[in-house]
Structure formats: structure tokens, C-alpha cells
């Protein structure tokens, strides 16, 4: 690939006017990302009409800033308030929020910011160098492989979260059930809609995520507010210590290895790789007892992975015209708005625009780090707000975010019904994350499974007819069998008297 095109892209993106658009995009993306339920996809969609008067280059430079800014904003509320701004930030809440409660909110935010920068830079370099290769590999991955990877995600997330596997699978079942609501995509038959036309399109993932996290957390805090009224959450020091750096630099570098390929494959996204990153960091850590209580590796790895995955999604969108995330779909609509069709010929027909967009990704990441790293202590001071006011504000913005999805009051009702479910899950010790994963990946897993079975005329061997699928199922079997094997080994160990 001719790097002279990239230098020309930098020359265009570094003009004062385009730098202003990039900085504006980063600030808007971060500001909108910290509102529960309004993630980068909605931010780009809301700002799409604003860019009608701009030339395509300026518009896409702003979109790139919004993309990365929105992802970091989502991780900010995920860490500080346990309310992810978007689905890619869900995993970050597992370790980031306990860190904030222990007075290490700024360290968690700094680890997230540097992770975003590292993952994004490595992912964008990979986009420049490997886009054609990754696109060719992605085309060869079939429905059985996708289904196997999603089954691996289901098993992995229930294996590492919570003290009880049964509770993990119960949470996953709740999510899969919510994901069934709506019309069957293949037959058109309604499922679990109870005759309500509004449910025919299913329940939006934003509503489910915000309901289970933001509303469920707010109700849980309200139920225990008098008991914990005197509790004050310290803000802590603003910078990472040497010990923190020793624990985070490897997760920062491992994240792109997991995130970029998953972002690049069609039907990918940041949800699967962020879990796998979390699972990997937990397995490799020497401080496994800290996981669930605020392990900084559990923030650094998934955040780096999510940022690299965001760069990876642009591979299939730019080279194949296939959006693998909601924000990529909105950006695809933006391309079409300007009469540009992404695909194999895009790099030839719109070379200047594409390389300027890629150069603006590098610039946006640098601006994101420069703007948000010094802001970590400021963001952490959100924890100083009295908890009744803080969680009242969360409920307000959660309601606004849910209403903005489709402008329907029914969505508000669904939000609070799901919030009550989230409260009940906390009450009975069910982890929330498997439910979110069930909602996000359940419909896609069903679609890929049925597609694979259609290709094989209903023969179950159609689900294991590729080396990748077989390898993934072997890994699933190992994850399921390992706890039983470990128990048997412990029973056979001689007891020293």
C-alpha cells in the first residue's frame, strides 16, 4: 500500500479548519457519550443533519472524532457510575466501577484513556497495512463459524462472572428471552409481543442496557441509601503509579490483537472481543483475587480492545461496504448521503477522502488523549455529587436516552420494567453482563444458526463443517469441562495429616 497517500491525507487533515472539526467531534462525542443511553451511533445520527452544509472531508473528520470520543465517554460513566453509555463499555464496568468506589476512579479513567489511545493507534496502523488481507479473510468466514464464536462468547462470559455458574446461565437466559421479543426475521411470526405492535421490532439494545445498568443501579442504590448514607467515595490521585503501569502495559498491547480482527469481520463489533479480552486478562493475571473488586487490568485490556475494534470496523465498511456496528451503519448512510458508495473501488475513486479520514483517526486519538487524560480528576469529581442528586440525574438522562431511541412513551415504560428486572437481578446475585450479551448476540446467533442449518438442509453437522468452527467448539468444551476436571484433581490429591 502506497503510504504517500496517507501523508497526503495528513496534510489535508492537519489544516486549521479540519483540526477544529476533529476537536469539535472529540468534545461532542465525549460529552454525548457520558449520557447513559446516548452512544456514538446516536451522536453521529443526531449530528448527521448538521453536516449537510459541510464538504464530505470536514464531515467525516468530525465523525471520526465523534466515534472515538463517544466510545471514551461511554467508558467514563461505565467506570464512575456503573452505567455504560454504549454496549462496548459494558465490560469496563465490571472492574472500573469497583475501582472508582475504592477511590481509584482517576486511575481507571487514565487506564481507559491510554488504552483507547494505544488500541486505536495500533488498530488504525493495522487498518492502513492489513485492510485488504483482513477483508479477504472475512469473506471466507461462514455462518457456522459465526455461530460457534457466539456460543464461545456465551460460555466464556458465564464462566468468568459471578460466584455461581447457575446464576450466570440464568442471567444469560433472561437476556436471550428478551432478545426473542419481536418478529421472526425468517418467518415473520411474532414472538413474545403479547399483541403489542410496538414490540414487533423487538426491544432496542440501548433500552435494555440502560434499564439493566442505569435504572437497575439507581433503584438498588435508592433501596440502600439510608443504610449507606454516610458512605463517601474518595476521588484519589489523578495519575497512574509505576505499579499500575507494570500491570497495564501488557493488556494495552494485547487488546488490539483481540479487538482488530473481530472488528474487521462482518457481523463483528466490540462486544465479543471486549469479553474475550476480559477473560484473557483474568486468566493471565497473577492477582485473580482482585478481579471483581477493581483490577486495573480488567479496564486496560477491554478498553484497548474496544478502540482497536472500532478501527477494525472501518475495514469491512470501507473495503466491502459492510457495516459491522451501528455507528458504522450510520457512517455508511453518511457516505451515501454524499453520493459515495464504499466498496472495493472506494480507494481508487475517492482516494483523497478515504486517506484523509484514516489520517483524521490518528489525529482524533491524539486529541482524545490530550483532552481527556488531564480531565480524569475532573470527571472523577462526579462522585462528589450527593448520591440522591447524582442518581436522580442518571434516571433523567437515562429516560431522555430511551425516549430518543424512537420518540415513544412505551420505550420509557419498557425502560423501567427492565430496570426493575435489573434490580431483582442484583437482589438475587445474578450478574448483569450475561443478560446484556444475550440480548445483543442472541438474535444474531439464532440467525447464523438457522442460516447454517438451511445450507445443510437441516443436518446438524452443518454447524461443525469448518476447521474454525471445530476449533472453537473444542475451546467451548474445555471451558465447560475445566471446573469439573479441577474438582476431580483436587479430590484425588493426597491429604497431608
Task: Please describe what this structure looks like.
- This protein has helices at residues 4-13, 16-33, 40-47, 56-81, 92-101, 105-140, 143-160, 165-180, 205-223, 242-264, 271-284, 297-320, 326-337, 346-349, 351-372, 376-380, 387-406, 409-427, 433-455, 467-492; strands at residues 182-183, 190-191.
- With 497 residues, it is mainly α.
- It has one domain (4-490).
- It has a two-stranded antiparallel ribbon with strand order 1-2.
- The longest helix is centred in the N-terminal third of the chain and has 36 residues, at 105-140.
- It is globular.
| Secondary structure tally: strands | 2
Order of helices and strands: HHHHHHHHEEHHHHHHHHHHHH
As for the number of domains, it is: 1
Helix percentage: over 70%
Overall shape: it is globular
Which regions are unreliable across 5 or more consecutive residues at pLDDT < 50? none
Overall mean pLDDT: 78
Main sheet: strands, sense, barrel: 2 strands, antiparallel
How many helical stretches? 20
Radius of gyration using CA atoms only = 22 Å
Structural class: mainly alpha
- How far apart, in Å, are the first and last alpha carbons? 68 Å
Main sheet strand line-up: 1-2
